[in-house]
Amino acid sequence: MRAMEAGFADPVSDAQAAFRAVLDAMARPGRLAHFAAPAEVPPGLGRAAAALALTLVDMDTAVWLGPACAPAADWLRFHCSARLAASPAAARFAFATAGECPPLAQFDLGTNEYPDQSTTLVLEVPGLARGGALTLRGPGIETVEHVGIAGLPSGFWGQRDMLHELFPRGLDIVFVAGNTALALPRTTRVEG
Amino acid sequence: MIEGYNFAYLDEQTKRMIRRALLKAVAIPGYQVPFASREMPLPYGWGTGGIQVTAAIVGRSDVLKVIDQGADDTTNAVSIRRLFANTTDVATTERTEEATIIQTRHRIPEAALREGQIMVFQVPIPEPLRWLEPREAETRRMHAHADYSVMHVKLYEDVARFGHIATGYDYPVVVDGRYLMKPSPIPKFDNPKLDRSPALMLFGAGREKRIYAVPPYTAVRSLDFEDHPFRIEKWDESCALCGASDSFLDEIVVDDSNKRMFVCSDSDYCQTRRAHGHGPAAEAKPATATKDAAE
Amino acid sequence: MYVAVKGGAKAIEASHALLDQARRGDPATPELSLAQISGQLTLAVDRVMAEGSLYDRELAALAVKQARGDLVEAIFLLRAYRTTLPRLAESLPVDTDKMRPIRRISAAYKDLPGGQMLGPTFDYTHRLLDFALAAEGKRKTVEPAADAPQTDCPRALDILDREGLIEQVAEDDASPPDLTRDPLQFPAERALRLQNLARGDEGFLLALGYSTQRGYSSTHPFAGEIRIGDVDVEIVPEELGFAVCIGDVRVTECEMINQFQGSREKPAQFTRGYGLVFGEGERKAMAMALVDRSLRAGELGEERTSPAQDEEFVLSHADNVEASGFVQHLKLPHYVDFQSELNLIRRIRADQTREAAE
Q1: How many angstroms separate the CA of residue B179 from the nearest CA in chain A?
Q2: What is the ipTM of this complex?
Q3: At what angle do helices C282-295 and C190-199 cross, to 10 degrees?
Q4: Among B43, B209, B249, beta carbon nearest to C76
Q5: Contact B185, B101 (CB under 8 A)
Q6: Which residue of chain A comes nearest to B10, CA vs CA?
Q7: B21/A116 CB distance under 8 A
Q8: What residues does each domain of chain A span?
Q9: Closest partner residue to C329 among B45, B210, B263, by Cβ?
Q10: Is C182 within 8 Å of B35 (Cβ atoms)?
Q11: Which among A51, A92, C169, C321 is placed 20 to 30 Å from B77, CA to CA?
Q12: C-alpha to C-alpha distance for B94 and B103, rounded to whole angstroms
């Protein structure tokens, strides 16, 4: 039997650092956050995704794993006491890869009264860069930000645009690529 | 550090719960996220919401500033700073520009905030509609539909009765054109500092169990009417210690014939100005402020 | 020179020293021990455990001592400690059918299986100050009748139930919500309301319960049964898969029989109100049962007209740790806000004066 990969070496400080990184990413869409821990990652998750799981997931949050992330299930159960959700709609957190992301409207978008009761999607993509073809506007952005997000299926941005009219319901997405992350809260407008 | 408690007092599971709430709060600017607020070693109403937010975000490399009424050495600010000194080993400061986290009750510092700084506000009553509609089920519905007509009616009635919008502090704002929000009981003087600030603003209401946020560079508009535009407080006096005429002034009664002096509420701002050689303006002696200050 | 806000840290330290002195009192008098408090101020300790939501006599006694006998402060101390404790397991629901009672009465039946048992109660004492206690003299003791310990004590309300005269309580194996883990949201289901009331302030519930007896939502209560005693606490460890007893707790349970309901389709039936608290807390358990019943107005199709029927009003204000903190926070400086108000009121008056002159 394969040995389980370790979690955070310093659970208190590593989780705090990872949280501040993702908080900053969510507060300033278009900025890249970097994750140094955990040192080992489980099969199915990159370092940034693993750090987010260790930081935010526990027995109170149901997690949905896309097929490519499913090998991380045991690791999530062991380190996070996570419950696995049967469907994207039942998940507080969802981990998937760009190539196999379910239609965005299938996730829990919250209600008008409780829009916070919505899924946070952690989506692994092949690459993230500042200064790309996408133009971002909205809260957290002084004027505009330009970013590149590689490997998304065609129609992805169209699906996301459709969600805007449902606001305050919506989906908050953290794109991850290896050690880096970039967040797009539901309020960010994307062009290009 | 006190033995027997986790870093920053809260256990890691509680921190995760608060952190999840904070991320949603940032993602939905101005919306109040319910969270399972814990009992803290300080009483509800004394900053437990702010303390929980700070405890959930603070790390060893942070530099923490705590103010109450704008000052670092007011008793409750001292007490909260001591709690964090005892449960973390983070550096503390009184200098606004040095701080990475500023926990506050009732003020936003005068010095301009910068990117990367986080303001943590202690919030007594987070619901801007609460005094117009006591029922949570009802106010939640109003927010869901952005139905803020009761607030506009209230402000209009103020104007009809007093000729002014009769709110001096905790003056309601609209965040990013959508959610009506209470900025916590800061004087309306501080409202413009919220608008498109480079800093992240986090709000914690412990007893009422709500967290909300304003991300950097987010539009925060104070409610008003075209013919009654929003205006901040003004003083005819300047600070009796540093001569500042652009800061929020506390009024101090110095004798029993109603003689008064005015000094900066922001103790760091006042201190810094004095360190740079500013002193009382020549005409601003602590003399006769007995007449109506608004004349 | 203006120095009023300086010296906060020093002042706090001095205040803590004074507080410690005041707590200790005259050093010539022997210091209270925790054993004395938990053994002789038992009902104070019980109340602190109940509203502090933590069953630990020694810690509650410590809280009472540290709080100088201020029970609301002691409750706060215990809650603030409780919140730092890890949750190791969830117990099975305690089975009060299997209580080992020290007191059990029914006001609805003159006698019933298991009998009426007064136990240690202030009821029927004449409230005359007992100066023999002041002299710390030894009391004459009466051997209590050596009743066989009650083990089988069927519920008074089961008698009605067998006749179909009281509403059935639906069996519900769903895990109840927990307001210490998830914030209270409205409307709140009954299990959540009961949790809130069990932690709620005794004085607040007493006043609300009292109001229902005076016409503010009358529910025509009978004290069907009140029992005080010890119940087992059981958990099912994951690795064992069956229940094991980890200790017992003393609780007070009150079941009220209330206003009957019925319609052409449904025969008339009494309704229930329920109270359960840690320790010996009969007044609290009874008040809780009254308020529980009145809060069921919605579910029972009654018009909500009174404060005790209004769940947002009751549940939002029952917690004395919240209430005490917020009422007393008015002591904190508010001079910035007050300055804003002064500034505003002066401006309004100046405008009015100017307009009057024009």
Answers
A1: 9
A2: 0.97
A3: 150
A4: B43
A5: no
A6: A12
A7: yes
A8: 11-191
A9: B45
A10: no
A11: C321
A12: 11
Q: How far apart, in whole angstroms, are the C-alpha atoms of residue A94 and residue A96?
A: 6
Which chains are adjacent to chain C, needing at least 3 Cβ pairs under 8 Å? Answer: B
| Tens digit of pLDDT at every position of chain B (295 positions) | 677 789 999 999 999 999 999 999 999 999 999 999 998 999 999 999 999 999 999 999 999 999 999 999 888 899 999 999 989 989 999 999 999 999 999 999 999 999 999 999 999 999 999 989 999 999 999 999 999 999 999 999 999 988 888 888 999 999 999 999 999 999 999 999 999 999 999 999 999 999 999 999 999 999 999 999 999 988 999 999 999 999 999 998 888 888 889 999 999 999 999 999 999 976 544 444 444 433 3
**Is A113 an interface residue toward B (CB < 8 Å)?**
yes
* Helices (H), ranges, chain A: 11-27, 47-56, 73-80, 156-164
Tell me the shortest Cα–Cα distance from C86 to chain B, in angstroms. Answer: 8
User: What is the spatial distance between Cα B183 and Cα B214, in angstroms, rounded to a whole number?
Assistant: 10
Fold observed for domain A11-191: Rossmann fold (3.40.50)
Q: In C, residues 13-32, which contact B (CB 8 Å cutoff)?
A: none
CA distance B44 to C6: 25
How far apart (Å, rounded) are the C-alpha atoms in residues B275 and B271?
6
Q: How far apart are CA C43 and CA C57, in angstroms?
A: 11
How far is A41 from C267, CA to CA, in rounded Å? 65
Q: Which residues does C37 contact at the CB level (< 8 Å), separation at least 6?
A: C44, C45, C61, C64, C65
Size of interface B-C (CB pairs under 8 A): 169
The whole-angstrom distance between C78's CA and the closest CA on chain B is: 10
Q: Could you say which residues from 45 to 64 on chain B have a Cβ atom under 8 Å away from some Cβ of chain C?
A: 45-46, 48
Q: Chain centroid to CA B33: how far?
A: 18
Residues of B serving a catalytic function are: 30, 239, 242, 264, 270
Nearest CA in chain B to A54: B16
pLDDT digits (tens, 9 = 90+) for C323-349: 999 999 999 888 888 888 888 888 888
**Peptide bond just before A38 cis, omega within 30 deg:** yes
Query: Distance between CA atoms of C183 and B101, rounded to whole angstroms?
Result: 26
Measured in degrees and rounded to the nearest 5, phi and psi for residue C34 equal -65, -35
CA atoms within 13 A on the CB side of C34: 9
Residue with tokens 């007493």: C206
Q: Measure CA of the first residue to CA of the last residue in chain A; give whole Å.
A: 48
Is C334 within 8 Å of chain B by CB?
yes
Which chain B residue has the Cα nearest residue C314?
B135
- Chain B contacts in chain C segment 174-203 (CB below 8 A): 180-187
Using CB atoms, which residue from B43, B135, B265 is nearest to C328?
B43
Q: Any long-range contacts for C86-95 (C-beta under 8 Å, 24+ apart)?
A: C86/B11, C89/C235, C89/C237, C90/C175, C90/C235, C91/C233, C91/C234, C91/C235, C91/C246, C92/C234, C92/C235, C92/C236, C92/C243, C94/C231, C94/C232, C94/C233, C94/C249, C94/C251, C95/C231, C95/C232
